[in-house]
Amino acid sequence: MTVPEATGGCPVDHSGAASAGTAPAAAAPAPAQPTPAAKPAIPASALTGPKTPVLFQMLSYWRRPADFMERCKARYGSRFVIRVSIPPRPLYVLSDAEDVKQMFLAPDDVIHTGLGSARLENHIGHSGLAWLDEGDHKARRKMVVQCVHGKAMQRIEAAISDLTEREIAAWPQNEAISLYPLIHHLTIRVIREVIFGELIPKHSEELLDVLEQMTDFNYKITSTLMIFRMKPRTVRLLKAWRPSGLRDFLKLRERADELIAEAIEERRNAGQLGDDLISVLLRTTYEDGSPLSATELRDEIMTMFLAGTETTSAALTWAFEYLSRERGARDRVLDELSTGGDSYLTATIQEVLRLRPPVPQVILRQVMKPIEIGGVRYEPGTLLWASAYLMHRDPALYPDPYAFRPERFLGTKPGMFTWIPYGGGRIRCLGNVVAETEMKAVLREVLSRYEVDRADPRPEGVRTHLITPLPSNGARVRLRAKTPSLV
To answer: What's the rounded Cα separation, in Å, for the pair 251 and 436?
Structure first.
């Protein structure tokens, strides 16, 4: 796909030779000007990036991904190449809004996304929606989206309201606590509603407990390794090395698989299918009438648990990190809540997602057919990595980009290709409505019920949880119950 360059010329004469109210004299037609030749595309191999050894780049990205990416952009521009993966392949980072737009709009046979989920493979397997492309992806997405739309969404909204009120009322008060574990505990229960609906499996509490324990592995650098693709001997060596955490993770994953299989069998035996994810998946068949395999069912359920929990809990944790120190914004949210409005609350959530997109670099795209983006030609096999983090901090798009200013989103909708916390193109998060409904409910309940005071006035740093950045202390605050007159 070639995107022609704009010539910049205007066909109207703005020379001002004719005075106001006077008809211009007839003039001989000007000779036709030759159309400037389009600049030839440069090969992607001409793009530059860090020359440091691959291991050094990997460690730099793992320890401080935001700093690493910002340094690269400052030195090499909006397009650069890095090597931070195993095996060490070049990753072409795009942070210019027009480049990202062209990548998102590329035909589905030109750019694929399946390979981009490799870092999540340890959790979600490799047969679910995140791995599918072209017609297979379109068909599966059409089915899965049913569990978060229409009557299903009405049921989920009611569950969010009930869960939020009950869970938050039990949060510890008058002591310094990290909000992240409490928020994660709540969000995983919301996703249980999405997946299982009203027929909760017999061992669902054990399943949720196992899944929460599994997420501890995501703080370790070994969580980025593609265990599925390793030789058995290598996996055994990693399991034997206790600090890797791999032995415990694999035991937990095995138990999670058993509990998911039990839950699926329970639903089959119940003979009752609704609008929840399990029901939708059990009704899904291929063109020949065959159902999804046990592995496909497991992978889709794990994908929903991971994607629907990690991202929302991270965004909410950052919301409290910002609002606990941005008193002006917090007071404005409270004033609005007292009148029943939510436009500033919505803008606050959008600003949090701008500054801290849960997936800072969106899912990798793999070029399948030659494509030109922004005057650069990418050949088949090239990996493209759009950076939401860098684009959201572009001062040309967001003046004073590091400032927390929810009002920048008041009265306007975020741009489809300039605000991408949910990804973009065909691979856009299908649970964004659930996430924003949940975020609003939690923020309303906490801010209306409690005074939120910081345990430490200094802004928290950042730590990476698999691919999702979190406040380094999990938004450490004190909650004090408000008196009835202040509620």
So the answer is: 33
Interval 330-381: pLDDT, tens: 999 999 999 999 999 999 999 999 999 999 999 899 999 999 999 999 999 9
CA triple 162-163-165, angle to 5 deg: 70
DSSP structural state of residue 173: -
At the top level of CATH, the class of 42-486 is: mainly alpha
Contact in structure between 411 and 344 (CB atoms under 8 Å): no
Residue of 462, 354, 334, 352 whose CA lies nearest to 418:
354
pLDDT band at 32 (very low <50, low <70, confident <90, very high): low
Q: Where are the domains of the chain?
A: 42-486
pTM for the whole structure: 0.87
Go through 391-430 and write b for each residue having 16 or more CB atoms within 10 A of its CB, e for each that does not.
bbbbeeebeebeebbbebbeeeebeebbbbbbbbbbbebb
Q: Which two tokens stand for residue 202?
A: 């017999």
Dihedral pair phi/psi, residue 414, rounded to 5°:
-60, 145
- Per residue in 193-228, pLDDT (tens digit) is 999 999 999 999 999 999 999 988 877 777 777 787
Distance CA 37, CA 145 (A): 46
119-130 CB burial, b ≥16 within 10 A, e <16 = bbbbbbbbbbbb
Beta bridge partners of 367: 111
